[in-house]
């Protein structure tokens, strides 16, 4: 483990922190992690990002530093570390005192989780158990945890409300569901803890600069990264999985949310934790409350892109739900947060990122062969 690397520093800098607050962000170099780190810095927090670059690259945090400029990036420290190695975490916590942790680090590819469930348990469950133990040892008891709409399984009723029945349909989903329950149990046993579980719907888009965005390694599993690779000529066409659903156009409905809105949802959750000593352990949906079909998304992307995306109608993808979208009432009422951006802005920013970075952060077709 190395302390330093990207953006080492974390000194006082000239900007006063959010009441001097310091936040540890695990998985800080990832898609949602980088956008959240950026917003935290803009809000005046001191941020330590930890990452093992399993599905991310150091360049992503360099881009964040570039976007926020030298004064704010002086408040960003990076530590290379793997949450499955407890000693890495001990070193992270020995370096500094953290007021709260936002925990993104984890694996999220459903098919990979079916093929390698042990890898998902080790990374997601063991990593979180280690994080909890080390936080507790160092007296840090405020946690925002990345959960997922995957915990609603195939919802019987939409919109999904936070107290809907929960069900995991694959090993990845089981790790998220188990971790939610584990963190709830831990909080009940340790009432001084404050924990927020954020259930993300479908994060897409990119920062308006087009300098940071999603850069999956290998063939993308998710819809927008795949469409974007078709747009830049890396893939010939989009496979549309399922066109016989009982929806407006036969394709499946999801609740897409701009990643910058999602990042702001984390700031709202953090502020809620700081302001609410007796919050306990609470789950919130982070979505827009609006459902969009696959074909509607393709057509919104085509508007931003200015050309057609070739599509091929294919059978349903196993395990997919027909319709998933969020009830946003609880987050609106209790966190004072709601998504600002619609699918037009999401596609505009996704295409801007793709156009500027057709091969992602590495910028080289040869390095991105898969
Ligand atoms: C998926 C996972 C979910 C996980 C999330 C992480 C499944 C069943 N669900 O959500 O557990 O939390 O990713 O981001 O894998 N689609 C196509 N063609 C493609 C890709 C996707 O038609 O090439 C369709 C899918 O069938 C689906 C919709 O687009 O109807 C959205 O798919 P995706 O982006 O993978 O998200 P989810 O399936 O909602």
Automatic annotation (TrEMBL):
Question: Which keywords appear in this protein's UniProt record, sorted alphabetically?
Answer: Carbohydrate metabolism, Galactose metabolism, Isomerase, NAD
A Pfam family in this protein?
GDP_Man_Dehyd
Q: Which reaction does it catalyse?
A: UDP-alpha-D-glucose = UDP-alpha-D-galactose
Cofactor entry = NAD(+)
Any one Gene Ontology molecular-function term assigned to this protein's record: UDP-glucose 4-epimerase activity
Q: Which domain of life is it from?
A: Eukaryota
Q: In which pathway does it act?
A: Carbohydrate metabolism; galactose metabolism
Q: Which GO terms describe its biological process?
A: galactose metabolic process; monosaccharide metabolic process
Q: What is its EC number?
A: 5.1.3.-
The NAD(P)-binding domain sits at 24-349
**Listed GO CC annotations:** cytosol
Family as reported in the entry's similarity comment = Belongs to the NAD(P)-dependent epimerase/dehydratase family.
NCBIfam families of this UniProt entry? galE, PRK10675.1
Q: What is this protein called?
A: UDP-glucose 4-epimerase
Q: What gene name does this entry carry? A: LOC123400021
């Amino acid at each position: 483990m190395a302390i330093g690397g990207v953006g080492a520093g974390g000194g006082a800098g000239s900007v006063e922190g959010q009441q001097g607050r310091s936040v540890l962000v695990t998985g800080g170099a990832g898609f949602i992690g980088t956008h959240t780190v950026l917003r935290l810095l803009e809000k005046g927090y001191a941020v330590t990002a930890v990452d093992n670059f399993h599905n991310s690259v150091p360049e992503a945090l360099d881009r964040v530093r570039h976007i926020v400029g030298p004064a704010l990036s002086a408040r960003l420290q990076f530590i290379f570390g793997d949450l499955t190695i407890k000693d890495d975490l001990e070193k992270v916590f020995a370096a500094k005192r953290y007021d709260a942790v936002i925990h993104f680090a984890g694996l999220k590819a459903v098919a990979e989780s079916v093929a390698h469930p042990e890898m998902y348990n080790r990374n997601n469950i063991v990593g979180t158990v280690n994080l909890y133990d080390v936080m507790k040892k160092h007296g840090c008891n405020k946690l925002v945890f990345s959960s997922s709409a995957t915990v609603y399984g195939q919802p019987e009723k939409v919109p999904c409300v936070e107290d809907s029945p929960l069900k995991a349909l694959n090993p990845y989903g089981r790790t998220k569901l188990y971790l939610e329950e584990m963190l709830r149990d831990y909080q009940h046993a340790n009432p001084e803890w404050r924990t927020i579980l954020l259930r993300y719907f479908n994060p897409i888009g990119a920062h308006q600069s087009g300098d940071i965005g999603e850069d999956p390694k290998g063939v993308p599993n998710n819809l927008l990264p795949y469409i974007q690779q078709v747009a830049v000529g890396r893939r010939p066409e989009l496979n549309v999985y399922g066109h016989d659903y009982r929806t407006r156009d036969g394709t499946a409905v999801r609740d897409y949310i701009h990643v910058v809105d999602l990042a702001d949802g984390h700031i709202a959750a953090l502020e809620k934790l700081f302001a609410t000593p007796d919050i306990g352990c609470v789950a919130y949906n982070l979505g827009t409350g609006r459902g969009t079909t696959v074909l509607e998304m393709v057509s919104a992307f085509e508007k931003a892109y200015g050309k057609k995306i070739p599509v091929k109608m294919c059978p349903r993808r196993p395990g997919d739900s027909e319709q998933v979208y969020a009830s946003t009432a609880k987050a609106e009422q209790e966190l004072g947060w709601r998504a600002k951006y619609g699918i037009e802005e999401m596609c505009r920013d996704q295409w801007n990122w793709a156009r500027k970075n057709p091969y992602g952060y590495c910028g080289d077709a040869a390095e991105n062969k898969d």
